[in-house]
Amino acid sequence: MHKEEHEVTVLGAPHSTILPRSTVINVYSKTSVPNHVVWSLFNTIFLNWCCLGFIAFAYSVKSRDRKMVGNVTGAQAYASTAKCLYISALIVGIIMTIGFILLLVFGSVMIYHIMLQIIQEKQGY
């Protein structure tokens, strides 16, 4: 038996009689893309100074939408922007809240001293 005949017998029938088979391989990406919706929503509701929390929430929703469509690169880009925005909103919100509390405290103390001076001046007459 020739080498060519042996290969034909090993391979089986000609390709035209065999039905083509297809194999589907689902490849899942192990890259998790956080969309930061919860943090952004928190900043939108509680610390929404300069509307940074709302903008972060919008980018978080865009990130979630890109992730659902399967655009991992776009989802990561929007998630990164949302993360920067919600961190900025958190820092600005904390600084503004502390500043407002300090302004309230020092303003109250100043008003107390002014009222005390007015009362002392009236008692002196």
List the helices and strands and how they pair.
Blueprint: H1 3-11, H2 37-46, H3 52-69, H4 72-124
Can you describe what's shown?
With 125 residues, the chain is mainly α. It is built from four helices and no strands. It has helices at 3-11, 37-46, 52-69, 72-124. Helix 2 runs antiparallel to helix 3 and helix 3 (52-69) packs antiparallel against helix 4.
Q: What characterizes the major β-sheet?
A: none
Distance between the termini: 134 Å
Summing up helix and strand content along with how strands pair, one would put the structural category as mainly alpha
Tally the helices: 4
Instruction: Choose one word for the global shape.
Output: rod-shaped
Could you tell me the mean pLDDT? 80
Subcellular location: Membrane
Family: Belongs to the CD225/Dispanin family.
Transmembrane segments: 37-59, 85-115
Keywords: Membrane, Transmembrane, Transmembrane helix
Give a brief outline of the structure:
This protein is mostly helical and 125 residues long. It is 72% helix and 0% strand.
Main features:
single chain, 125 residues, mainly alpha, 4 helices, 72% helix, transmembrane, CD225/Dispanin_fam, transmembrane helix, membrane
